[in-house]
Amino acid sequence: MTTSLPDDAFGAHPMDAWLPHRGRMRLIDRVDQCDADAISCTAIVRRDGLFTNAEGMPAWIGIELMAQTAAAWAGARARSGGGAPRVGFLVGSRRYDAHAPLFAIGAVLRVTAVCALAGDNGLRLFDCTIAHDARTLATGRIGVLEARRPGGE
After folding, report:
1. Which of 84, 103, 106, 128 is the most buried (most CB within 10 A)?
2. Would you say residue 9 lies in a domain?
3. 1 within some domain
4. Among 129, 131, 128, 127, which residue's Cα sits nearest to residue 103?
5. Domain carrying residue 40
6. What are the helix (H) ranges across the chain?
């Protein structure tokens, strides 16, 4: 199953339907593909980005790109059950390997996250990759915890 929505389905920005992040903290520009196990998103490194300096975006921000991509996957699952994207927490990384010190200004990054493990308690592990022009720039495995709403949902 592939999930897609019209740009104005939720909120003022197309990504409002996928992520709880707002304003300059939203680093993901669009969802390219999403299914029951994986998601692929695009992030454009902008000169005026929150974490961008004169040289580009430091590669350590890649872990946040991965976390937001995983959050968009969780948002799609929540919507499929009639809900909305929820707040989640990056609880750790088993590894994060950056193959470059930064992501260049103007780079169109493809961020993928594959759900490798999902617990009943909201904890999930994702295998993630960041690529640009078919070149892998970073890989990692992240752990995220989706916040529970009062009442256990």
Report:
1. 103
2. no
3. no
4. 131
5. 14-146
6. 62-80
Q: What percent of the chain has pLDDT over 90?
A: 55
The DSSP code sequence of 26-67 is: ----EEEEE-SSEEEEEEE--TT-TT--SS-EEGGGHHHHHH
Q: CA 53 → CA 43, 45, 59, 107, 114, distances in Å?
A: 16, 11, 12, 14, 30
> Could you tell me the CATH number of the domain that includes residue 61?
3.10.129.10
pLDDT band at 132 (very low <50, low <70, confident <90, very high): very high
Number of domains in the chain: 1
**Greater pLDDT, 71 or 151:** 71
Helix (H) or strand (E) run with residue 129 in it:
strand 123-132
